[in-house]
Write a structure and sequence with these properties.
The protein is mostly helical. It is built from 16 helices and no strands.
């Protein structure tokens, strides 16, 4: 019945389509822009600098993005982000056709990362204004499944286009995808309450109130996460797991190439299988969450990922490795969709942008360091020991979760009603 409801929802269907296009555009840019730098300079260091600039833009935007999303109309924010990325990426092929300018790529990626983060935060909040709360898990499952398809097909298509017509052609297609997404968003309507900034404090000018929100928005999101027991536990535990997860793809590639002696073609097949695991898990999340409940789904997903990583570290067989990578990707995806949906269900609408921004920034802040540390250990000692260590960490996280509200089948039902409006700017509290 949930699936039928989503199929008949025109707003969600259009949003689903345009979000898929945006994600496809992101997948194109991940391949096409670094390729253009490599073609123009031949320098791996310059490629790394480009990635670093984008990463800094994402983190800095996460500190203030939630307050912006909560203050302004969310549909317009989505459209603004798509319009900005359309113009930014569109300038690259135009300028390159006249006179290539390397500096332009760094400027574009720096600003594009800002609008990418704003879009991601707004996208999470918009889902809660598109569908009923009991359909949020189903909606997120469909969106994540589409994102998985885009992330599988996007790099391959971008590589093919870049090989045939050059990287600038792939970037032009990337820009076009944002333009189409912008047009699609003009035809959706979000439910009332989206982007409701609330009234400023008595005697406070709107501009001053907006500046106050920007200064305190991140803190407000962090306080809400901390004072909501299940979200506090999720934030802490996911900060631990994300410290390791970001570098796992690099570890898989190294293990396949150097540990198992496979060529690049086999690596590509295994990573494609990982994408399939993501796709299937995202599509099945709604059913599993309804059937098992949140706690069994989340803990079971991480237990599955832990067992897969453990077997991967112990068994030197490429077929077994492929299956384990598939199961690992499925487990991580299932846990991720469940936790995102729970945040959307528990968080009051007017705080959802700040809470989403705070959650992503906090639990992702140490991820680059974790990726560097994990890959350094693998390079020095081989993949077996680090993989066993990752599996042990995941299992420890599962055991700790069983002593927190995460274990509950329906933690969203134990939360208090949304906080009063007058409390939302500073330190909102939800007790369980």
């Amino acid at each position: 019945m949930a699936a039928r409801s989503l199929r008949s929802d025109r707003n969600f269907t259009v949003f689903w389509a345009v979000q898929g296009l945006s994600e496809l555009g992101n997948a194109f840019s991940l391949v096409a822009v670094p390729l253009l730098v490599l073609h123009a300079t031949g320098s791996a260091a310059r490629m790394g600098l480009l990635t670093a600039i984008a990463g800094v833009g994402l983190i800095l935007t996460g500190l203030v993005g939630g307050a912006l999303v909560d203050r302004f109309d969310r549909r317009r924010m989505l459209m603004l982000c798509d319009a900005a990325r359309f113009l930014l990426y569109g300038t690259i092929p135009v300028v390159w056709a006249v006179d290539p300018q390397i500096w332009l790529l760094y400027v574009v990626m720096g600003f594009a990362s800002v609008f990418e983060m704003l879009f991601k935060i707004t996208y999470v909040t918009a889902v809660a204004n598109l569908v009923d709360r009991d359909l949020i898990v189903e909606a997120n499952g469909r969106l994540e499944a589409t994102n998985a398809v885009a992330n599988i097909a996007g790099p391959a298509l971008a590589g093919a286009v870049a090989g045939l017509f050059g990287p600038t052609a792939a970037i032009a297609i990337n820009a076009g995808s944002f333009g189409i997404s912008l047009l699609g968003l003009a035809f959706i309507r979000l439910r009332p309450g989206a982007g409701d900034p609330g009234r400023p404090a008595e005697g406070e000018a709107p501009r001053r109130a907006a500046l106050h929100d920007l200064r305190t928005g991140f803190r407000t999101g962090v306080v809400f996460l901390w004072r909501t027991p299940v979200l506090r536990a999720l934030t802490v535990l996911l900060t631990v797991t994300t410290f390791l997860v970001l570098g796992m793809t690099d570890v898989f590639i190294y293990h396949l190439r150097h540990g198992l002696g496979q060529d690049d073609e086999v690596v590509g097949y295994v990573l494609a299988l990982a994408g399939l695991g993501t796709l299937l898990a995202a599509a099945a999340t709604g059913y599993l969450r309804r059937t098992l409940g949140f706690g069994p789904c989340w803990t079971g997903a991480f237990a599955l990922a832990a067992c897969a990583v453990l077997v991967l570290g112990l068994v030197d067989n490429v077929a077994v490795a492929a299956v384990m990578v598939f199961l690992y990707s499925a487990g991580i995806t299932l846990a991720g969709v469940c936790s995102m949906s729970l945040r959307q269900q528990i968080t009051p609408d007017r705080l959802l942008g700040r809470v989403t921004s705070a959650f992503w920034t906090v639990h992702s802040s140490l991820a680059p360091l974790g990726a560097a540390l994990l890959t350094a250990l693998v390079g020095r000692y081989g993949a077996r020991g680090p993989l066993i260590g990752v599996a042990a960490t995941f299992l420890t996280v599962v055991l700790i979760a069983l002593f927190t509200p995460i274990r509950l089948r329906h933690p969203e039902r134990t939360s208090a009603p949304p906080v009063p409006r007058e409390e939302c700017r500073d330190a909102p509290e939800v007790r369980q």
